[in-house]
Amino acid sequence: MKEAVAEERVEAGGTRRREMGMERVWLIVRSGARWLVSALHFFTVCPLLVLLALFKNPRHNDAPQRWFSRNVVRLAGARVEARMAPGFDASRTSFFVVNHTSLFDPFVLYCVVPQIIRGLELESHFKIPAYGWLMKRFGNVPVPDVRKPSDLKRMWRLTKAALDDGVSLVVFPEGKRTHDGRVGQFEDGVFRMAHHFGTPIVPVSLVGVFEWDHKGSWLLRPSKIVVHIHDTIETARLSREEIHALCERVRGIIAAPIEAHLETVRRPETGN
């Protein structure tokens, strides 16, 4: 009897391993196809948008850019849902402070943020074919890779010009993509700029991106992404001494729904 039970367990284990192997193969095939289709869409449409921007101000041609971003995300296998807090003021030019997980993060944001948004982006990214041309032409603000005082002054000047022109700016204050899905420590540059310019901050949580795409893996798993756009936070009346506390407060707001989501999706792995 015991031998029969043991044999059944071995057989069940072998069946499960084969099923997992087939699931892995299907995931690899599907991911490759999604990368191919999404890349073809990107490198076909992106140059057309750059060309169009030569004749028409990108700020006055928002619809094709949103269509482009939605297709990039959709073709890569994700669905996006936005949840906006009651205290989010869509009429205010703001800094959108966001956790950073995937190369797709800017496209996910552009799918749902109801404003003209651009980003603060490493200057070296402007040299990437197609993508860099698009970011430069559309008005992203270059962040110097080497932080010389003259380069930082130029960044602050360009940031102020964009805000004065009514363009909200997206910032990833972690400075790099997460390795484990959790929100890392924030650099305080955007908070110092927000305080200096008196510009409000909008914390944004990208939930579910890590399960879809993340650093260290090229696989694309079908996922639902929920973008939490939190209450707008005023900065004009803050003192310099309060900047660090503001940084930690915003990080906590962004991290809360992400931690709740990770606890849910990882609970089966721990057996709890």
Helices and strands in order:
Layout: H1 2-53, H2 62-75, E1 78-84, E2 95-98, H3 105-112, E3 117-122, H4 131-138, E4 141-143, H5 149-164, E5 168-171, H6 189-197, E6 201-207, H7 209-212, E7 223-229, H8 243-270
Parallel strand pairs: 1-7, 2-5, 2-6, 3-4, 3-5
Antiparallel strand pairs: 6-7
Helix pairs in contact: 1-2, 1-4, 2-3
Q: How would you describe this protein?
A:
The chain has helices at 2-53, 62-75, 105-112, 131-138, 149-164, 189-197, 209-212, 243-270, and strands spanning 78-84, 95-98, 117-122, 141-143, 168-171, 201-207, 223-229. The protein has one domain. The protein has a 7-stranded mixed β-sheet with strand order 1-7-6-2-5-3-4, with helices on both faces. The chain is globular. 51% of the residues lie in helices and 14% in strands. Helix 1 (2-53) packs antiparallel against helix 2 (62-75) and helix 2 (62-75) crosses helix 3 (105-112). By secondary structure, the chain is of the alpha/beta class.
